[in-house]
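New to this. Please check both lines:
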Amino acid sequence: MIVLGLGTVFKSMGYHIGSLAHMGPGYFPAAIGVLLAISGVLIAISGIGKTHHLSKEALPPEWRGWLCIIGGIIAFIVLGEFTGLLPATFAIVFISAMGDRKNTVKAAVILSIAMSIVAVVVFWWALQLQFPLVRWG
């Protein structure tokens, strides 16, 4: 997390940062990068001195969760490019929600619809992001 945060800050320096009153295109990535790096430092500090003993009852890695989250991100990138904000948002939320073994398909669909509405209101309507809601091709 620290490396990813510092890399984001470094990359955002290539854009105009601006000020808090007049933010440039590099302001938000720089701020998120700093917060990510600070979070990484805090996580590292909290783990210092703690040892974990592996037992026979150690849980296997949650491959389903990892694969669904990565698959959701890939689906958002592909669908965002070819179909627009609404299908891409629905897909990323639905696929990622299915990574949790406790979620049902019905719960994932309801969550996906709710988050799609939030994405439309926040990004398309309020922020007027230049990302078409729906497009074909």
